[in-house]
Amino acid sequence: MTETQPTLKSLAATIAQSAEAITVYLNANNIPAPSFAEDSPFDYPKTPEILGTLFQLIDALSDLQHLILGASDGINFSPIFESHDSEILDVLNQFDFWNAVPLGGSASYSEIARKTTLPEPLVRRVLRHAFLSKLFAEASPGQVVHTAKTAYVAKTPRTRSWIALNLEQIRPATVYLAKSLREYSAGKNSHSQEPLESAFAIADLDRTGRPVDFWTFLKNDPDGKPKGYRANRFAEAMQAISASSSIKPDEIVKLGFDWNSLGEATVVDLGGSRGHDAIAQAKHFPKLKYIVQDLPEVEEAFNSNLPKELAHRVSFQPHDFFQPQNIQADVYFMKVVLHDWPDKYAAQIVNNLLPYLKKGSRLVLCEGVQPESYDVHGNAIIPLFVRRLLSSMDLQMLVGANCLERRLTDWKDLLAQVDKKLEIRNVASFPGAVLSIINIGYNT
Ligand SMILES: C[S@@+](CC[C@H](N)C(=O)[O-])C[C@H]1O[C@@H](n2cnc3c(N)ncnc32)[C@H](O)[C@@H]1O
């Protein structure tokens, strides 16, 4: 790496300059600046004009914090801070603190205790830690109010499912990553390709006494919960995270492929969940018909999500993508599906489409394409924040099912394993976005 070592002064100067540039931009465009208060805008605008500056600011802040903490405090405090920050967010979520404090009002500790069913002294301890992360605030002694972050969860309830996915399902599994690596990957040239050997599977969250892969776990509803509970919550989590990225996946899908060039056409959205992508796209492209294929458990959520006016163009078909495809479509679309599967299984999913691709259809993926982090001179080419997000997604895949976020070369290798005639025609990427559109054709 050729980067010179940053100093307190150089990082502070970057912070001052970027903060100034962002403030000037907001003022010039009459955009209110986010604050910690409940009525704050949820985000800074993620426009191309200031996205780079926002990343510069956040990256410098992160480096500054590491530098100030130094090696010993940095190493010693991070395990305790990170562990309890996650645990407190989990408690707020599981005991629905979000609705125990009224939006636009305040609640006393005893009122919160009543609504969450927790003893008041515990509520005080939980909130004392939460306040430090700008999760709720004590506006006046004994009165708790929402902050921007907690109001966001209260106003976008699907976010609760995203938090639950990460903190109730993935977090306990992360504890088993080292065990999974030790048992199935250590001493080999590549990591295990078996979802049943992943950290999630061996964590066996339901205590069944055997490894359980993530998708089977989702099908097993906990006692006392309605049918499809876990599958629904997972679908909600996917919808929540789709809606919150800086560059909305809807936009990426809309702009990353020339859908209008298809004319009247059928798109199969494999693993399309409750249809949120198909529904959003159907609104933009009135000539396209969408068939969402997913596991039968998701059908009910799809039906409740589908606007009546789109019912003639967007439909659901229960379909297991490990079985041969049964619909001739113009485009087979998959969004963040193949990243869930190690190559061995991802290849089977694509292989099941081959008979139809040969007839001239397209395979369009909306997936992460892990970029190189450094150029040939060793200089960082993508922001630290984006690298952190990409590598967290990659590890989420490793923990969840022994799969991965692929680089372009990994995508090419995967397709070559299925059929050498499959060719990536184009990859459309968008600055600041973690997902790209991979447009794949079949050479006859
Ligand atoms: C990571 S989610 C992506 C959902 C959606 N495409 C999105 O971007 O929000 C993966 C989807 O694959 C579905 N899935 C898992 N195993 C499947 C299978 N064997 N056949 C069909 N769909 C499956 C899940 O139900 C889930 O909806």
UniProtKB/TrEMBL annotation:
It holds the Pfam family Methyltransf_2. InterPro entries: COMT-like, COMT_C, SAM-dependent_MTases_sf, WH-like_DNA-bd_sf, WH_DNA-bd_sf. Keywords: Methyltransferase, S-adenosyl-L-methionine, Transferase. GO terms for molecular function: O-methyltransferase activity. Residues 236-416 form the O-methyltransferase C-terminal domain. SUPFAM superfamilies: S-adenosyl-L-methionine-dependent methyltransferases, Winged helix' DNA-binding domain. The keyword Transferase applies. One of its GO terms (biological process) is methylation. This is O-methyltransferase C-terminal domain-containing protein. It comes from Oidiodendron maius (strain Zn).
